[in-house]
Amino acid sequence: MARRAGRRPPASPLPQREGVDPVRLRLPGDGAGAGGWATVREHLLGRYGPVLGAERVEEMCAAGEFVTVDGPVLASTPYVPGGWVWFHREPPAEPEMPYPVGVVHRDEHTVVADKPHFLATTPRGRHVAQTALTRLRRDLGLPHLTPAHRLDRLTAGLVLFVVRPEDRGAYQTLFRDRRVRKEYEAVAAYDPAVRLPCVLRSRIVKERGRMAAEERADGPPNAETRVELLDRRGGLGRYRLLPATGRTHQLRLHMSGLGLPLLGDPLYPRLLPEAADDDWSRPLQLLARALEFTDPLTGREVRFESARRLAAWPDGAEAAGGAGA
Questions:
Q1: Given the residues 21, 114, 152, 167, the one annotated as active site
Q2: Domain 102-324 is of which CATH architecture?
Q3: Is 30 annotated in the active site?
Q4: What is the model's pLDDT at position 188?
């Protein structure tokens, strides 16, 4: 730790653990002695002691579980502002997700996964081991796999992953520049008074720390969705949703705004008890049905389709994976 680290993080000296990357911590401060810490150990105790307990932090230090580019953090390792520390966080208690992550395509550049409901795309908060990324890294033996985009945890369907770090930018740019045609399928109430097809445009804002996003009138539209009715049965309709943008909860908000909230939605139009978003018997009836784009590395036009079916609209075929389909 004696040498000052650059702004760009070096490669982690710790390997993944069951497909999960170690936590990377940048030591704060721009000048020597920032924060008043003489050693890295002192900073770790101050930062993580209130969360993990001082005794646990001391145990991790003694076991060499905190590591810098120069090796394990010792009691005497000096604090250097801008330095890097890595460690593996103790995984949270997570219920085992019983539904598999399907793979509809795999080549040297990409993996197209068919994600079940209730499975997060990437580790975050209380979902670490039970995520699509962690499972695929482990099951496919692809430690550098990364998502080119993300799908809500409650939404099932297709997610594009990139195999090699050097290819990541090319595929992420497709989504950033809106050069991917995304097609979703949803089940919601049917209302003959709602004239379809229609195109919805609004301004959607999601503030940090809040579960739900909201539509606002204090600025120009930043979200656009085309809504089409595919079929109806009694009081239910099956809809095709074609987003031109990718705002958080865009499809759920737009359908709720039409007066057609998606079946199984715990947030819109009203927030249900927190446990509702983990009720595996009532999955959100939203499926990322298809992805279509020109592959930036091969130049080929490709289209991928989910093999899953929404439980509320089984169409005579057995729904793959039960409630998680």
A1: 152
A2: 2-Layer Sandwich (3.30)
A3: no
A4: 98
If you ran DSSP here, which 8-state letter would residue 32 be given?
T
Q: Is the peptide bond before 147 cis (omega within 30 degrees of 0)?
A: no
Q: Express each pLDDT in 92-139 by its tens digit.
A: 777 777 889 999 999 999 999 999 999 999 987 677 778 999 999 999
CA distance 160 to 291: 9
Q: What is the pLDDT of residues 187-197, one digit of tens each?
A: 999 999 999 99
Q: Dihedral (C-alpha) 302, 305, 306, 312: value to the nearest 10 degrees?
A: 150
Cα–Cα distance between 146 and 110 in angstroms, integer? 9
φ and ψ at residue 209, rounded to 5 degrees: 90, -10
What is the band of 3 on the pLDDT scale with cuts at 50, 70, 90? very low
Query: Is 86 in contact with 22 (CB distance < 8 Å)?
Result: yes
DSSP 182: E
Please choose, from the candidates 81, 84, 92, 93, the residue with its C-alpha nearest in 3D space to the C-alpha of residue 66. Answer: 84
> Where exactly are the structural domains of the chain?
23-87, 102-324
SS3 call for 200: strand
User: Under a CB-based contact definition with an 8 Å cutoff, are residues 116 and 324 in contact?
Assistant: yes
Q: What is the mean pLDDT of residues 39-45?
A: 92
